[in-house]
Amino acid sequence: QMYMNGELSEDHDVRMSQLQQILDTAVAKANEKMIGILTPQQIKTRRTTAAVVLVLIVIAFGFVFRKVIRAFTPPSSSADGSQVSWGFRKYWNAYLLLIPAVLTIFVWHYIPLMRGSMMAFMNYNIMGNSKFTGLENFGNVLFDIEWWQAVYNSMRYCFLVISMTFLPPVILAILLQEVPRGKILFRTIFYLPAVITGLVTMLLWKMFYAPSEAGALNRVLMMIPAVAYVAFGLVLLVSCVQFGRRLLFHEATKPGVVFIVAGFVLCYASVSLASPILFPSGEPVGRWIIMFVPRLFNTLPEPYQWLSNSNTAMVACVIPMVWAGMGPGCLIYLAALKGIPDDFYEAADLDGAGFIDKILFVVFPILKPLILINFIGVFIGAWMSSANILAMTAGGADTEVAGLRIFYEAFTYLSMGPATAMAWLLGFMMIGFTIYQLRILSRLEFKTTGKK
């Protein structure tokens, strides 16, 4: 590859020096990964870094524990000045019913967590004796480039899952509410994909992604001209800009900017599907400009390599989740929309509100608690859905996420110690969202009817 790129020197001695440097780097990397051979300076640096990070983890978990206690502890007095307590005597029967659940969670979650955490400080062997290694596993993981690449891929994957699966059920529910006839039929059609189990859904879409003209998805896309992708992208852009303008008009600056930026991102994503048609690689920019209009009516010259191309593989892993998850989410939001009184819409009509205004300032504020809870579920699900990546690409094409990396480290390479250290570091990264989640859950109240 270096020879093809012209990076190798023509001088014999210099070329041999370059090749020897490449071999030395490869040997050092192989010794580090396979045998664990490090220089004394590397060992000292890694142990020091691991000690600092471990102290931060302990402090962070202590901070989170304190936040949990404060979030779910009742205040000392209520708004009317009366004393508020846990009410053990008054609600003893409710606490008694909670004991089996608490014990079950403690036995099957926290005890294995505490025992398993010891593996992070050991060279753990399934067969034979295990050796205590201190902070060595944490130090090696912190300096593992492949691990941090997997963390970055997890962030990419989480962003795609949230952006592609969070709002579509809300939009679909609003549209289904406006359908005058056939609502039950449409609900059934959109819910049917959820009947199929997750693994079957992934394998089904893997067949759709066949990298040839026989693949179902490629066959459809190769019949669509470039102008359709461009038009669809512009429709998405105009729709998001309209929402953003209404929000900016009502001085909701941040959400308005988010909608406008999302519109440009969606437009770019749609137009990029037509880039092989409009902008073939290897051509000068001048020819792109000259041939732009004639190529608008051309179709894809060759099928997409959906799961083997790093530009499309991650998105291809998310699309089945959109298809399978839109129906259940839509029904939840549709049920909530039925609970909005007609008086709110009538008052909005009297104030001159349009369709977009009703969505932004009537529907969204009322559905905000439900939207927040679903956002938490989508976020957690995105970080826990590494099995989908395993079924689709097995981590190839730059799609190996953190959860999949931990799985391979633990059950393929049987490196339980480094895998446990990775899991703890991943948990440390999620602390900020955990606090946000607990704050939301602590503010939610569920009341029975007939009481205030």
Descriptive overview:
This protein has 452 residues and is an all-alpha fold. Among the domains are: 146-211 and 306-452, Orthogonal Bundle (MetI-like fold); 223-302. It contains 20 helices and two strands. Strands 1-2 form a two-stranded antiparallel sheet. Strand 1 and strand 2 form a beta hairpin. Helix 8 packs across helix 14 (313-338) and helix 18 packs antiparallel against helix 19 (416-429). The protein is globular, with a radius of gyration of 28 Å.
Shape: globular
Quickly count the helices: 20
- CATH homologous superfamily title of the domain at 146-211 and 306-452: MetI-like
Rg, rounded, reads 28 Å
Q: In CATH, what is the class of the domain at 146-211 and 306-452? A: Mainly Alpha
Under CATH, the topology of the domain at 146-211 and 306-452 can be stated as MetI-like fold
CATH architecture of the domain at 146-211 and 306-452: Orthogonal Bundle
> What is the share of helical residues?
over 70%
Please summarize what this structure is.
The chain has 452 residues and is mainly α. The protein is built from 20 helices and two strands.
Topology summary:
Elements: H1 12-35, H2 40-72, H3 92-117, E1 122-123, E2 131-132, H4 136-142, H5 145-165, H6 168-178, H7 183-191, H8 198-208, H9 216-221, H10 226-249, H11 253-272, H12 275-278, H13 285-295, H14 313-338, H15 342-350, H16 355-384, H17 386-392, H18 402-412, H19 416-429, H20 431-443
Antiparallel strand pairs: 1-2
Name the features.
MetI-like fold; 1% strand; 20 helices; single chain; disordered C terminus; 452 residues; mainly alpha; 70% helix; two-stranded antiparallel ribbon; 2 strands
